[in-house]
Amino acid sequence: MDSIDEPLLSRNGLAARQLAVSLLDHEEETRLPRLRDFAEELGVGNGTVQAAFQLLEEAGAIKTVARGHLGTFLVRADRSVLWRLSGLGTLLAAMPLPYSRRYEGLATGLRSAFEQARAPFAVTFMRGAHTRVAALLEGKVDLVVLSRFAADRLMSQHPLSLVADLGPATYVGAHGLLVRQGVDVESAGLRIALDRSSEDLELLTQRTFAGRTDVRWVEASYMQLWDLFARGEVDASLANLDEARRHKGEGVDVLPLGDEVSRELALRNSCAAIVGRADTPSALRAVRRSLDLTLVTALQDEVVRGERLPSY
After folding, report:
1. Cα(178)–Cα(188) distance, rounded to whole angstroms?
2. Phi, psi dihedrals of residue 115, rounded to the nearest 5°
3. In this structure, are residues 300 and 102 in contact, taking their beta carbons and an 8 Å threshold?
4. Which one, of 246, 259, 276, 295, lies nearest residue 110 by Cα?
5. Is the pLDDT of residue 306 over 70?
6. Which three-class secondary structure string do you get for 208-270?
7. Between 246 and 239, the higher pLDDT residue
8. What count of other Cβ atoms lies within 10 Å of the Cβ of residue 57?
9. Which residue of 185, 207, 251, 277 sits 20 to 30 Å from the alpha carbon of 306, by its own alpha carbon?
């Protein structure tokens, strides 16, 4: 154990850990809340808060100065030390499999933004929004990346909280209808591949073929999709066009989705959302405060355009 951590195991030290999380919300050269405000926030006495401030200053995490009637100011904060002493540890984020430049760019941007914030961060990849959310609820990961559409649906069903919405075209560029060349999409018995692990693709597929009782559903992972087309085992499917462009000319036509299908869902489907557990509000506030979302999207755009190599 690091020697500067030992005092943080005391009663005052536990308050110092909580205080470290709170101070991640504050910028240097800004006035801090009053001592009694911190005491109320942490559920401890004023003396305990004073001792917690002293421990953090002795550990080199912060430096404060009293400026008379103006109050106490945070003049220096070492975010890497604050993060370590807060007990938040390394944040593990679950993302979709990085099969497109857009996903690789998103992972690259997130890693760089956390590094800039001097917060320990790692990423793991899991197929399917339900799988990622299950890992989050079980405490196996700290954050998950979903489409905003999937995030809204799952937040209505589970104790989850939105950390950030990265905006349009950060999750996917667009979805389209893939049809095997020579196949009439209106023909009876159309075999449609459906990946139920994807909230977005499942709903879009059902909306596209609503009212069609003459089609046959083929349960399949989107990772198997192109092999199924090549073997002639499916006739149509909905797909992320970021992936479809890689397979241009492989015997599959790409058709646009009708406005009645895509208008309502296109924006939320294309936005990447970062979601955490609702029972970890301090950690989520720290993440929201620390992340430079403009850096995330700027680096993602560079990867998508081929101007930066993915790094995650």
Report:
1. 17
2. -65, -40
3. yes
4. 295
5. yes
6. HCCCCCCCEEEECCHHHHHHHHHCCCCCEEEEEHHHHHHHCCCCEEEECCCHHHHHHHHHHHH
7. 239
8. 14
9. 251
Please give the pLDDT value at position 1: 38
What pLDDT was estimated at residue 2? Answer: 45
The one-letter amino acid code at 88 reads L
Average pLDDT, integer, range 95-124: 92
Q: How many CB atoms lie within 10 A of CB 35?
A: 15
CB distance 194 to 205 below 8 Å:
yes
pLDDT, one tens digit per residue, over 70-95 is 999 999 999 888 888 888 888 899 99
Q: How far apart are CA 228 and CA 237, in angstroms?
A: 10
Distances 136 to 132, 150, 157, 191, 296 between C-alpha atoms, Å: 6, 14, 14, 34, 22
State the residue for tokens 């506030």: 285
pLDDT digits (tens, 9 = 90+) for 225-238: 889 999 999 999 98
Q: How far apart are CA 171 and CA 297, in angstroms?
A: 11
* Cα distance between residue 254 and residue 256, in whole Å: 7
Sorted by sequence, the CB contacts under 8 Å of residue 178 that are 6+ apart come out as 225, 229, 236, 237, 238, 239, 244, 252, 253, 254, 255
- Sorted by sequence, the CB contacts under 8 Å of residue 305 that are 6+ apart come out as none
Average pLDDT over residues 203-227: 88
